[in-house]
Write a structure and sequence with these properties.
Layout (H helix, E strand, L loop, with lengths): L5 E7 L32 E5 L14 E3 L19 E5 L3 E5 L5 E4 L6 E5 L30 E8 L5 E4 L6 H8 L17 E8 L5 E10 L14 H8 L4 E7 L4 H15 L7 E7 L6 H11 L6 E3 L8 H11 L3 H7 L8 H8 L12 E4 L6 E5 L3 H6 L5 H14 L2 H8 L6 E4 L2 E4 L8
Parallel strand pairs: 1-3, 2-4, 9-11, 9-12, 12-13, 13-14, 16-17
Antiparallel strand pairs: 1-8, 2-7, 5-6, 5-8, 10-11, 15-16, 17-18
Keywords: Cytoplasm, GTP-binding, Hydrolase, Magnesium, Metal-binding, Nucleotide-binding
Cofactor: Mg(2+)
Subcellular location: Cytoplasm
Length: 445
C-alpha cells in the first residue's frame, strides 16, 4: 500500500430528531394529556487511532463521511432512536485541522484514542416536557438541532521516539537497518526513502542481550535545501520530525559535515523554530572511508553547534553500540515530553453552546449584543447569548410557544438587560426572524 500522510475530507454529523407534538388517544378518553416523546440525537463523526493502520491511503476514494440523523420522537412518550456514530480509523499520530479556521480539532497519539470531529445534533424535546400548572396542553415541541459539518485536513505525523535527519545518501537507511529490526530499501541515489520508515531499537547489555528498554527510530526522507519552502520531498516529511523526542543528525564525513549541519538546522528552523530546541546529537557516518585524524578534526569543527558527536560506520558497525547507548541516555522522558509538547485543541464549541444556553446567566456576561434602531420605530435587536438558537428550535411552533419562550427569556435575564438598555413598554424585540413586543411587568405597579 502506498504511503499517504495528508488527506482532505468532508464530514457531516447527523441532525437531531424533532420532538413529537402528540396527545394521548384512548377509548373513552376524549382529551388525553400530552405524550410527545423526545427526538434522538444525531450520530457524530469520530476519529479513532488504530494499531496496524500505517497510512491514510486506505481512506482514499472516500472523502465524504455522513452520520445518520436521529429519529423523530413519537406519541406515547416514545423517544426516537439515536443516529449511530461513524468511526474513521486513522494511524496513531494523526492530527486533524479544521480547514476553515486552521485550528487543531484532534491529535491522536495513543492506540485506541478517540476524538469527535463533528458532533451530532441534539434531539428535540416532546410536548410532554413543557407542561406546567398553567400550561397543561402545550401544542408545541422542540426541534432537533443540525449536526456539525466540517472540511477537515488530516496530517499524519509519525510517532517515533528518535528521528534520523540528514541529506540524501548520508546513510540514514543503513544506520536504521543496523540499529534496529527494520529493513529499508537501501541504494546509492537520492530520495531512495520515499516514505518514513520505523524501526525498534533495544538496549543491550555488555553481552549483547536485549534489556527491557527500547525506542522507535524513524528514518525521515532526505532533506534538500529549500525543503521548508516545499522544494523536493522535504516539506512532505518535515512534519514527522516534530513528533520525535530526540533528533540524530546523520552527516557524511566525506562531504562537508559542518556546512550540511548548518543547512539542515536552517531548514528545520524555517519550518518550525522549536525543532532546534529538541534534544539532539550528531552521528558522523562513513568513518570507514577516511582516517581517524580527519574525523577528529571534523568533530572539533562541529563543537560550535553544542551537540554531542558519535563516530559511526553503518556499513562496518563501528560506533553503533556507543550511538545506541548515547541515545538511551539522552532520550527525554516520554510522559514529560508529551505534556510540554501537547497541541492546543480547539474547544468543542457545539457542546459548549448546547450547555451555555441552558443556564441562567446575565446576558451581559454572555456576549449578548443589544442594538436599538431608535426613533421612530424602536426595535431592539438581540445578537448572541444562545437566544437565536433557542428561537430556531421552536420555529415550527412560534405562535404556540411564544408564552413559554417569553418566560424562558425572562428567567435568563434578557428582559432586565433590555430594561437597563432603555427599552420601554411596547417596544419591539427582534431575535432572528422572530419579533415580539416588550412588556415591562413592573410598569404601572
Amino acid at each position: 500500500m502506498a504511503f499517504r500522510d495528508v488527506l482532505n475530507i468532508e464530514v457531516a454529523a447527523g441532525n437531531g430528531g424533532d420532538g413529537s407534538m402528540s396527545f394521548h388517544r384512548a377509548k373513552y378518553m376524549e382529551k388525553g394529556g400530552p405524550d410527545g416523546g423526545h427526538g434522538g440525537k444525531g450520530g457524530s463523526i469520530v476519529l479513532r487511532a488504530t494499531q496496524g493502520v500505517e497510512s491514510l491511503e486506505r481512506l482514499v476514494g472516500r472523502r465524504k463521511f455522513k452520520a445518520p440523523n436521529g429519529a423523530y420522537g413519537e406519541g406515547r412518550l416514545r423517544q426516537g432512536s439515536d443516529g449511530e456514530d461513524i468511526f474513521i480509523d486513522v494511524p496513531v499520530g494523526t492530527t486533524a485541522f479544521d480547514e476553515d479556521s486552521g485550528r487543531v480539532i484532534a491529535d491522536l497519539v495513543r492506540v485506541g484514542e478517540e476524538r469527535v470531529i463533528a458532533r451530532g445534533g441534539s434531539g428535540g424535546r416532546g410536548n410532554s416536557t413543557f407542561t406546567s400548572s398553567t400550561r397543561q396542553a402545550p401544542r408545541f415541541a422542540e426541534l432537533g438541532t443540525a449536526g456539525q459539518k466540517r472540511r477537515v485536513r488530516l496530517e499524519l505525523r509519525l510517532i517515533a521516539d528518535v528521528g534520523l535527519v540528514g541529506y540524501p545518501n548520508a546513510g540514514k537507511s543503513s544506520l536504521l537497518a543496523a540499529l534496529s529490526r527494520a529493513n529499508p530499501a537501501i541504494a546509492d541515489y537520492p530520495f531512495t526513502t520515499l516514505s518514513p520508515i520505523l524501526g525498534v531499537v533495544d538496549r543491550l547489555d555488555e553481552a549483547g542481550t536485549p534489556l527491557d528498554e527500547r525506542f522507535t527510530l524513524a528514518d525521515i526522507p532526505g532533506i534538500i535545501e529549500g525543503a521548508s519552502e516545499g522544494k523536493g520531498l522535504g516539506l512532505e516529511f518535515l512534519r514527522h520530525i516534530s513528533r520525535t523526542r530526540l533528533l540524530v543528525y546523520v552527516l557524511d564525513v566525506t562531504r562537508n559535515p559542518v556546512e550540511e549541519l548548518r543547512q539542515l538546522q536552517a531548514e528545520l528552523y524555517a519550518y518550525d523554530p522549536s525543532l532546534l530546541e529538541q534534544v539532539a546529537l550528531v552521528a558522523l557516518n562513513k568513518v570507514e572511508l577516511t582516517d581517524e585524524d580527519l574525523a577528529v578534526m571534523v568533530e572539533d569543527e562541529l563543537v560550535q553547534f553544542g551537540l554531542p558527536v558519535v563516530h559511526v560506520s553503518a556499513k562496518e558497525g563501528q560506533g553503533q553500540a556507543q550511538l545506541r547507548e548515547a541515545i538511551f541516555q539522552m532520550l527525554p522522558d516520554r510522559e514529560l515530553w508529551a505534556q510540554t509538547h501537547a497541541l492546543e485543541i480547539e474547544p468543542d464549541t457545539v457542546r459548549e453552546e448546547a450547555l451555555r444556553i441552558e443556564f441562567r446567566i446575565d446576558p451581559a456576561a454572555r456576549g449578548v449584543g443589544i442594538v436599538s434602531t431608535g426613533q421612530p420605530e424602536r426595535v431592539w435587536t438581540i445578537h448572541g447569548g444562545g437566544f437565536e438558537e433557542r428561537i430556531v428550535r421552536f420555529s415550527r411552533y412560534l405562535e404556540e410557544a411564544s408564552e413559554y419562550l417569553g418566560s424562558v427569556f425572562k428567567r435568563q435575564g434578557l428582559y432586565n438587560a433590555l430594561k437597563r438598555a432603555g427599552a420601554r413598554e411596547g417596544d419591539t424585540v427582534e431575535i432572528g426572524t422572530h419579533r415580539f413586543e416588550y412588556f415591562d411587568e413592573d410598569e404601572g405597579k
